[in-house]
Amino acid sequence: MEIRVLLAGNCPLKNQGICFNLLAINDAVALETTSEFNRLPQLCLSYHPNVLLIFMDDWQENISPIFHRLSSVDILALSNSNSHRCHTLIQKNYINGCLPEASPPELLAQALRAVAKGYTWFSKSLLRTAFRSKVGTNGNYIVLTERETAVMQLVMQEKTNKGIAQELGICNRTVGSQLNSIYDKLRVESRVGAALKAERLGLFEG
Description:
Layout (H helix, E strand, L loop, with lengths): L2 E6 L3 H12 L4 E7 L5 H8 L3 E5 L8 H5 L5 E5 L4 H9 L5 E3 L5 H12 L4 E2 L1 H7 L15 H11 L4 H8 L3 H15 L4 H11 L5
Parallel strand pairs: 1-2, 1-3, 3-4, 4-5, 5-6
Helix pairs in contact: 7-9, 8-9, 9-10
């Protein structure tokens, strides 16, 4: 599957770096780079990209209204300092994933492929940044089964459902069932929410 990527960022040097990384990904094609955020809806209509790759930290103004006009494209954000903001945008279904700006081509490739297939991606390093001051048990007593624990640990390693199924030797349907049980116990609604909650509670520390 060819991944058609539209890149949006204000810094020419960073844009050039990402374009160079995209060249190292054999199934990714850079369509165009723009520094005009307001042109994104028009560009998406023209190019029909599989993934819109955005340098989130380049725009300080409220960009949420633009996301309302980009519902037809999957969005992967690059961010070094706005982990909370990215998480909020994922929860609101404005974007589909987030990873650090300086991610190596291998990680960028994994994220692009996951988002292009409809999965949500949130880098583990950003999880830690988002909840650095909150990690640790808070008195809640949550019990996961051995299988749920194995599934959750792989979620924390940023594995897709298919990857989890292959790793544990189970079918995709079983992974989905285990995830639903985990969501219920952690009182969340998504794998991103589960990973964030597990990280915040320190369920897999030590």
